[in-house]
Amino acid sequence: MTDKKWKQEEHDLFDGDCKIFTTSKSNGIYQLQIWLRNEGKTYRRSLRTKHLQTAIQKGKEEYINITSRVNSGKQVFSEDVTTVVNRFLTFRQQDVETGSIVKERLGPIKTHLKNMLMYLSGDMKVGDIHRGTFIDYYNWRKKETEYKIGDDTIRNEYSTIRMFIKYCHSVVVK
Question: Structural domain boundaries of the chain?
Answer without folding.
Answer: 7-71, 81-173
